[in-house]
Amino acid sequence: MNYQNCRFELRDNVAWITLDRPESLNALNTTMAKELLAIANRCLVDDSIRSVVLTGSGERAFCAGGDVHAFAEDPEHIELLITQITTDLHAAISRFAWMDAPVIAMVNGVAAGAGLSLTACCDLAIAADTARFSSAYTRIGFTPDGSSTYFLPRLIGHRRAAELFLTNRELSAHEALDWGLLNQVVGPEQLRDTVAAVADRLARGSAQAHGGVKRLLMMSSTDSLESQMERETRQLVHASGSPDGREGVRAFVHHRKPAFNGQ
Question: pTM above 0.70?
C-alpha cells in the first residue's frame, strides 16, 4: 500500500514507520493522521510484526506537532479539522498502546506538540542527542492532545508535566532522559543502528509476553494493589500455558535460546 505522508517498511518482523513531511518538520495533517491509523491497524492485525519503530523523515524533526499553517488557512473550519486529525491520531495511539508488538520512538530531531505526545505514548523511546522536546500547545492558545496528558504524568510526574504544558519549556535530549521521558540518548550517527538492535531483539522475543507486559503496565496506575495482583496472576497463568511460555521453560532447562513463535 502506498502512502502520501508516511512511509512503511517491514523488515525481519520489524515495522518501520516514518512520518514523511520533512519540508513541514513532519507536522501532522489530516492525511498523515489517517495514514498513521491505517498503518497502526495493519500492525495490530499482522502477526508477523513483532516490534514497531516510529520515526520522522530527515534530520531536523521527529514531528513538530500539528500543521498550524493548515489551521491558519481555513480558520472557519478549524474545529472540524482538529476533530478529524485527533480522531484518527487518538485511534492510532490506542492501537499502538494495546497491540502486542512493542513500539519504539526513534526521535531524530524536534519533538513538539503531538511529536512530544507520540514520544510519550511509545513503549520505549531512544533519541539523538540533538533532539529537543516541548509541549508548545499553550503558546498558541491550544491545549494538549495525542494522549500526552495521560502518559506524561505517568512518565515524568504531575509537576513536571504541568511545567511542560504551562511554560512550554524546551528540554534537551539529556534533560528528557533525566526526567524519564527517554530510555537512551545516542549520537545522531548511532541512532538508527541502536534502535534497530533493540527492535530486532524485541522481534525475537515472545509477542504474547510483550503484549501481556504492556497491558499490565497500562492498567497499573488506575487499579488497586489487589486487583492488579489478580490481573498479574491471570496474565501469568495465560503466558505459562501458551506455546511461547512452554518453549521458554524448555529452553531454560536445556540451556538454549528459546525459539518463540509469538503465540
Answer: yes
